[in-house]
Specification:
Elements: H1 5-15, H2 22-25, H3 28-35, H4 46-50, H5 59-72
Length: 77
Amino acid sequence: MTGKKSLWQSIQQKYGLEKHDYDTLFSWAFGDFVFSWDYDFLADGSKARRAGFHEYVNTEEMFYSLFESFRKDQVIP
């Protein structure tokens, strides 16, 4: 997102999302870390289930809920 502050500000203005500041809304360094891996990452939760942790979060439902919260809080249009 380096150099995209003005683009984000134009999106905010277009959709009336000026409530949140670009520099404090997101952790761009964390995003860069998570999305810049140059190798595949595989995680397996079976060991946790064997230890008795059976609850899980439905990923699709979680994302829909997050996006709805972002819309409600005027982070995204």
